Amino acid sequence: MSEETALREKTATLARMLNMQGTIGMFGHVSIRVPGTPKCFISPGASTEKATVRPEQIFVYNIDGTIIEHPGGLVPLEWRIHTQIHRDRPDAMCVCHLHAPHARALGIAGKPLKPVFLHGSFLCTGVPTWDNPRLVVNDDQAADLSRALGSHRVAQMRGHGSVVVGATAEEAFFACTFLEENAQIQLQAEIMGGAIPLSEEEARDCAAGTFNPRLFPLLWTYYERKVKLDQARFASAHRVPANAPELSEDG
Question: What radius of gyration, in Å, describes the C-alpha atoms of the chain?
Fold first, then answer.
């Protein structure tokens, strides 16, 4: 399998895994850049069921905004999020635009995301907010969002969602997973009187042990197996038996 074929498949798998977690929503999307090239793969828009995204449904863009390959269906409306961040952040080989419910709720409430548990400790480097609830549909908006993200891994989009980046798809998925889990725990603690964030020293020490490249593929493989099993079950459930009677033209 060529590198591009593998990355195209990985883009589809990432979309399905985030769908399984309930964080990408109908309108979210992800991208992976091909190393050493200006090419990036972007998952499809709202016309595609996220649970069954296939490699042949992936869009291909140049990071200058030129579409290279259109597989059909609706173009992701906010594709500029990906092309702009890939241009501005050569280290960000994977970009995820999420509509994760708990992280979004904190942003709507004006509560900053703080690391409150072990696997959320990587948030200690800060989570800036893009103070604009609008869709990202033009170059100025995309550039403004990218500036808000800066050198961080995560940025909140007020009243909208979030953006998460990683040096690899595995790293980005790890950050997406524990961004939302941290937000869920933080929100639950707020209901009980307030979340106690990790101290700067605690978060730094915890992140050294948990936000670790050797752990990224473990989480990826765990969810990859789950979505492949779901995909196999779906295919089996919808397979037409070999001995099924043929329908006549009038049904």
Answer: 19
Give a three-class secondary structure readout of 14-32. HHHHHHHHCCCCCCCEEEE
Distances in Å between the Cα of 139 and the Cα atoms of 67, 135, 160, 192 are 15, 12, 18, 42
> Which tens digit of pLDDT belongs to each residue from 166-206?
999 999 999 999 999 999 999 999 989 889 999 999 999 99
Residue 18's Cβ-count burial label (10 Å; 0-12, 13-18, 19+) is buried
H helices of 192-215, where? 200-210
Count of CB atoms situated within 10 Å of the CB of 158: 15
Q: Who contacts 51 (Cβ-Cβ below 8 Å, separation ≥6)? A: 16, 19, 20, 230, 234
Taking a C-beta distance cutoff of 8 angstroms, is the pair 223, 170 a contact? no
Distances (CA, A) of 49 to 45, 75, 85, 187: 9, 14, 25, 29
Which residues face 161 on adjacent strands? 157
> pTM of this prediction?
0.91
